[in-house]
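Q: What would this chain look like folded?
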Amino acid sequence: MKLDIASLEVFQAVVRQGGVSKAAAQLNRVQSSVSTRIRQLEDQLGEALFLRDNKRMTLTDAGHNLLPYAERMLTLAREAADAVQTKNLNGTFSIGAMESTAAARLPQVLSQFHAENPEVSVRLTTATAGALQNSLSNEEIDVAFIAEPVGNRGFQTLPVFSEELCLVAARTYTSISKTASLNGRTVIAFEEGCAYRRYLNDWLLGEGIVPGTTLSVGSYLAMLSCVSAGTGFAVIPRSVLSIIDVHGTLQHGELPGRYSRVQTLMVWRKNYTSPKLKALQSLLAGNE
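A: My prediction, written as structure tokens:
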């Protein structure tokens, strides 16, 4: 039995997107084409892969059994295509990054990468450090930029950026150099899984500071807007402060000791290699 890679790609998309319509949009196909591919794959295997309830599709036992093999086959097919490229790199290169890295560190790097490899389609997504590690493990992205530490033994890492962490608050606050002034104040941070939030929590615990509530936000622009309005305090890389105009509304200072600087690591799976990865590694080494 020969399994068609294109059919497995459609199967994977339906699983990840939770249905035919979203999978069709991701694959840039019409819904009928996606549905036909799934039916053909089920006919070929002699097993139903999905339970269909109106527009909802959930995996059957056979579907659950097929999924890890499909993902491995698709990954190997993509890596095999990458491996034979010696020049004129092409295809898709999926990169994940923390928002701070994507905003302050990667634009120049990716611009140069595109100039040197114009036929490569770079897909950049942003998420917390925890979410990025999950995406790497699930082979949803090829490489990620994550703040240390990275504990997964299945990953390889390369230090690429050094970030200076700053404690920021509105000028209307009592001086943040007096740490007691932060007791009971609101912490503004990304959701759980953010590496910098973890560093902030560790520092607060070590200093014996008991903050008030935590306001979770989805971007640094929202974070700094809330901070400058006097809502609370936050920790932010200085590289981000340098690209967002806060009109002199903030006071800021470095976190002390081991919290003051954090390495951003380039991370990839140990079993993953490609000319695109090597090209990005070479580019980052040249920018050090």
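The first helix runs from residue 5 to 17.
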